């Protein structure tokens, strides 16, 4: 099926099409202003993230495994976002600083995207429970994460984030950590 056929359903709040054979451009959804959740993971949907910039009520955006691309700054005004999952979208680009205003985020997955920037620019995202940045160009020091006291899962594998591993001791809820391939040191 085609996403275009769904464009006329302007009152849609939840569009969950994960793993379906749906295809077409994400631009077809740009007038679905009531959307709260959009899950297109593992679909053949294409298009640019900027098509979603006007859907300002989105709380959950999952595009992992789709063919969507674009710049992170397109999502910077989606303040209600609680879950942003773009992991694996190799044509998603931009500095993570543009997401610093999305303070409702509890899950941020940018793994294996072309995201870049200083990890400290995420320190205002104090509700984050899961942060996946593996395989990105994000850099900086682990000290930039000490404000994220709710973190349970942290994946910084193959990034340029450094600092002392002991810094993570301040994150009491942390259960899963991946620092493989990073310049993180064992002690200060």
Notes on the structure:
The chain is an all-beta fold. The model has no long low-confidence stretch (mean pLDDT 96). It has strands at 14-16, 23-25, 37-39, 44-46, 60-62, 70-71, 83-85, 92-95, 107-109, 114-118, 130-132, 137-141, 153-155, 160-164, 176-178, 184-185. The strands form three sheets. Strands 1-3-5-7-9-11-13-15 form an eight-stranded parallel sheet, with no helix packed on it. It has a six-stranded parallel sheet with strand order 6-8-10-12-14-16, with no helix packed on it. Strands 2-4 form a two-stranded parallel sheet. The radius of gyration is 17 Å and the shape is elongated.
What is the typical, i.e. mean, pLDDT? 96
Number of helices: 0
- Summarize the biggest pleated sheet: 8 strands, parallel
Structural class comes to mainly beta
Count of distinct strands: 16
Radius of gyration: 17 Å
Quick synopsis:
This protein is mostly beta strands.
Keywords:
elongated; 16 strands; 188 residues; 6-stranded parallel β-sheet; 8-stranded parallel β-sheet
């Amino acid at each position: 099926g085609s996403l275009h056929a769904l464009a006329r359903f302007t009152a849609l709040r939840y569009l969950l099409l994960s793993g379906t054979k749906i295809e077409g451009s994400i631009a077809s959804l740009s007038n679905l202003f009531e959307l709260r959740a959009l899950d297109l993971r593992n679909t053949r949907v294409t298009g640019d993230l900027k098509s979603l910039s006007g859907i300002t009520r989105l709380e959950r955006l999952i595009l992992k495994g789709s063919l969507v691309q674009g710049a992170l700054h397109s999502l910077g005004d989606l303040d209600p976002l609680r879950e942003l999952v773009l992991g694996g979208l190799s044509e998603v680009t931009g500095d993570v600083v543009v997401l610093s205003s999305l303070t409702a985020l509890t899950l941020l997955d940018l793994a294996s995207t072309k995201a870049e920037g200083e990890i400290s620019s995420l320190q205002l995202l104090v509700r984050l429970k899961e942060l996946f940045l593996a395989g990105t160009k994000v850099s900086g020091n682990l000290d930039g994460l000490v404000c994220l006291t709710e973190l349970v899962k942290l994946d910084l594998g193959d990034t340029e984030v450094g600092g002392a591993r002991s810094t993570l001791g301040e994150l009491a809820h942390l259960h899963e950590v991946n620092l493989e391939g990073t310049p993180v040191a064992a002690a200060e």
